[in-house]
Amino acid sequence: MEIEAIRRVAHRIVEVRGRDFRLSSEDRKDLLQEVLIRYVHAWSGEAQPNNVEAWLETTTARVITDRWRAEQRRPAVAEVEDHEGDPYDVVADFMEVARSRQPSMPAVGDAVINQVFGLVPPADADLLQRRLVDDVEPSDLADELGISRAAVDQRISRAKARLRAALAAQPELLAELQAGHPHAYDRGRQ
Description:
- There is one protein chain.
- By secondary structure, the chain is mainly alpha-helical.
- Helices cover 68% and strands 2% of the residues.
- It has helices at residues 3-20, 25-42, 52-73, 90-99, 110-117, 122-133, 138-145, 149-168, 171-180, 182-185, and strands spanning 80-81, 87-88.
- A two-stranded antiparallel sheet has the order 1-2.
- Helix 1 (3-20) crosses helix 3 (52-73) and helix 6 packs across helix 8.
- The chain is elongated and about 65 Å long.
- The model is unreliable at 183-190 (pLDDT under 50).
């Protein structure tokens, strides 16, 4: 069976299984990529499993199970609350302010960005800086790092979660950010 035919079969299996487990379309795309990567690693060269469809079905189930187990082991993400006690994404607001080029919303200074990124490991800080402040496309980051686009997205998501938790643990820094740019942090929360 050619790789394109294998991709079509895997896509069909992933779509059915992904919907069964209520995975988003992005998660199903990541799942498809993971299944195809496992296939290529397991069956490189001319060899193929006796029943390709059964192998893909089993592998899809295993990847879903592995992801579910990893999610269960992951600690809960600390939430930051606004003035009324509602949770919101402080990282998204910080990045919007940090990237802003509008005079009405001056960008956060480099010293503050460095202080915020100093709360997470250097690899996370570098990735977040490149993607969210410098606006480097994920596909470009994937090429630079030699990993898949999905892996870049996962790393960014995990880095954001670690930054969100770190900011939740630093209320004085969060208050300083919000005081300097209340228009960004108070949007829709009044």
